[in-house]
Amino acid sequence: MTSSLLIQPRDTALFRDARPFNSGANRARSLNFPWPSTTTGFVRTMIGSTKAEGFVWTPERARGVKLRGPFLVSLVEGGPEQDSRVANVYVPAPMDVAFFPDGGLRSTLRRVQLVPKAISGENEVYSPLPEGVTHLVTLGVKPPAGKAVGGPAFWSLDSYMQWLIQPQLDETVVHSALGIDPLVRELRTHVALTSERTAADGHMFQTEALRFVKRLAGGVMRFGLLVETDEPVMNTSHPTIGALGGERRPSGLNRLTSSPLPPCPELPDSAVRRVQLMTPGIFTNGWSPKRVLPSGATIFAALVGRPLSHSGWDFEKNRARATRRMAPAGTTYWIRFSDSQEARAWTESHWFHSICDDAQDVADGFGIAAIGVA
User: Fold this and answer.
1) What is the DSSP letter of 63?
2) Residue 370 forms beta bridges with which residues?
């Protein structure tokens, strides 16, 4: 049985990046969005604790809890049921798209799909692409003059599902209808305290954190983080408020009665699939999830963004974890299977599940994939 858990930061949330705190500006900087390991660690700590005794699980028991996420969700305030608090789900923008200005209007964009196409003959070019991986082009569409522009950082679930199942090569979209911009960053100035609890001269510093509230013309939009697990969790003995991210800022944890995530859709019979990451992926082969594919499947095109670095502190061993590279969320792979039956079976088993090849990365929520038509 799937359990959907809603994390609600009560204030700002600080998800530190890898830069040292004292790197010139005495500022703690936040990531644009938390890594899966951050929310997974928070949830495991909460469900492994009791109100009376605190954390009671062993590290092995905690690592064994498999979670998927986090997903950004918008919230409805004051609903009588827990499910009414989730208004919409947002996923990181896919990379197989280019946006251009549409007639000079800032509110509308021209969206062009990027698709794989082999380049050969007179137009042959040299590139560092791996053997067997083709280039991507705007097939059948002449890109507008000028530079591409950025689109929404997160797409609404409805817009995203349409893009997976029925993508359009070239169309005009409304920015606000497609999705939302990144979460607001808030900068705060602090002063260090002495042992006598007074301000230390010259010891000012700043923290940059994400605020899970956006102010709109019609009011405010509040956000939370959704994670899912197949294990039964959250009962009356568990605490509902804990510390998420840096500086131990409080966040609430509640269980929803149903999942707001979509079931696997019916896709046309085809041996080719387009696979997109919704959380960063960690793979033994670097950029490629080759090890989780059937023996006859091949990746014939890919759009992988600049690699991200992941590390952290191992509290069990009291040492820093090794730094690893991740394929960012939004990364897209085009995969050809042996036949349509194999493609359908793989799609159903990996829909909104991890495609990482390490069991612990799967349990931690890295590499969650959505699968659509190519």
Assistant:
1) H
2) 276
For 286-313, the pLDDT digits (tens) are: 899 989 999 889 998 888 989 999 888 8
CA distances from 46 to 16, 32, 41, 231 (A): 21, 24, 9, 14
What is the residue type of 160? Y
Q: Which of 14, 70, 38 is nearest to 311 (CA)?
A: 38
Cα distance between residue 36 and residue 362, in whole Å: 10
Biggest CA pair distance of the chain: 76
What's the token pair of residue 156?
A: 């609404």
How does the average pLDDT of the chain come out, rounded? 85
DSSP one-letter code for 149: B
In contact, 74 and 223? CB cutoff 8 Å: yes
Over residues 353-365, the mean pLDDT reads 94
Cβ atoms of 33 and 72 closer than 8 Å: yes
Q: Is residue 95's pLDDT more than 80?
A: yes
**pLDDT reported for residue 281:** 96
Q: Is the pLDDT of residue 11 over 50?
A: yes
Quick one: pLDDT band at residue 81, thresholds 50, 70, 90?
A: very low
End-to-end CA distance of the chain: 31
- pTM here is 0.88
The better pLDDT of the pair 336, 240 is held by 336
As a whole number of angstroms, the distance between CA 218 and CA 362 comes to 40
Q: Which residues pair with 215 in a beta bridge?
A: 220
Between CA 313 and CA 33 the distance in angstroms is: 19
Instruction: Name the amino acid, one letter, at 115.
Output: V
* DSSP-derived pairing of the beta strands 369-373 and 86-92: unpaired
| Nearest CA among 373, 371, 372, 368 for reference residue 72 | 368
Residue (of 278, 276, 274, 267) closest to 228 by Cα position: 278
Sheet holding 199-211, edge to edge: 27-28, 199-211, 184-193
| Two tokens, residue 65 | 């809890």
128 contacts: CB under 8 Å, gap ≥ 6: none
Question: In this predicted structure, what is the pLDDT of residue 163?
Answer: 93
CA distance 41 to 245: 10
Look at the alpha carbons of 143, 116, 157, 362 in this order and tell me if their dihedral is positive or negative: negative
In the chain, DSSP finds a helix count (H) and a strand count (E) of 6, 27
